[in-house]
Design goal:
Number of helices: 7
Structural class: alpha/beta
CATH superfamily: LmbE-like
Strand content: 15-25%
Distance between the termini: 10 Å
Low-confidence stretches: 1-8
Largest sheet: 7 strands, mixed
Mean pLDDT: 93
Order of helices and strands: HEHEHEHEHEEHHE
Strand order of the largest sheet: 3-2-1-4-5-7-6
Number of strands: 7
Number of domains: 1
Radius of gyration: 16 Å
Shape: globular
């Protein structure tokens, strides 16, 4: 397969926007994929709707997110300024996502799967769906709170799994906050990558469900 077929692009650098509700959501859901895109010369932009202050100290989590974005090599990081656990399903948020899209002009957008036990994830995804009607490539990623997630797109992250785990380690305040005894987010991420890898017939993978996926031949 050509590089064009692998990326869904003509091989030229493109802008990619990843949209998450909280610091560390993107690293878990699509961190490996974003790293691979950056290494291939594409530009990654991140939008985080909240500082995650309900799950820890907001200032600390924001600093961790900035460090992770820099470690990843993201081109820019945008903050939504919404309150953790209270992301609204409103026209204002739709307009904000539209504004970010207008600035970034992405060819790909990644965000949360819509069936999720966390209301922030559900509401952000609903607003993102409304704001991304004209984006040719729009994919959903999974997090530990996703439900009934059945990928139809996979990215082999075998060569970048360690780099993905290092991004999650940058969120030091959250690593052990899994509510599962003796299990860190690194353990969960590795297990998920193993399972999706088995489905994709590779060692480690990230899985996605496509709202739209344009493959240029």
């Amino acid at each position: 397969m050509t590089e064009e077929g692998k990326t869904g692009t003509s091989g030229k650098p493109v802008n990619i926007l990843a949209i998450g509700a909280h610091p560390d959501d993107l690293e878990y859901g699509c961190g490996g994929t974003l790293i691979k895109y950056i290494r291939a010369g594409h530009r990654i932009f991140l939008y985080i709707a909240t500082h995650g202050s309900f799950g820890g100290e907001g200032d600390v989590r924001a600093e961790e997110m900035v460090a992770s974005a820099q470690q990843m090599g993201a081109t820019d990081l945008f903050w939504g300024g919404y309150t953790d656990t209270q992301i609204p399903l409103t026209r204002d948020l739709i307009s904000e996502v539209e504004s970010i899209i207008s600035k970034v002009k992405p060819k790909f957008i990644f965000t949360h799967w819509h069936d999720d036990t966390h209301q922030d994830h559900r509401n952000l995804t609903a607003c993102t769906l409304a704001a991304t009607r004209y984006i040719p490539n729009f994919l959903f990623f999974e997090t530990p709170t996703s439900q009934d997630f059945n990928p139809n797109v996979y990215v082999d992250i075998t060569d970048v799994l360690d780099a993905k785990l290092e991004l999650l380690e940058a969120h030091a305040s959250q690593v052990t906050k899994t509510h599962i005894e003796d299990t860190t987010i690194l353990d969960i991420a590795r297990s998920a990558a193993t399972f999706r890898g088995i489905q994709a017939r590779v060692r480690y993978a990230e899985g996605f469900t496509s709202q739209r996926l344009l493959i240029n031949i």
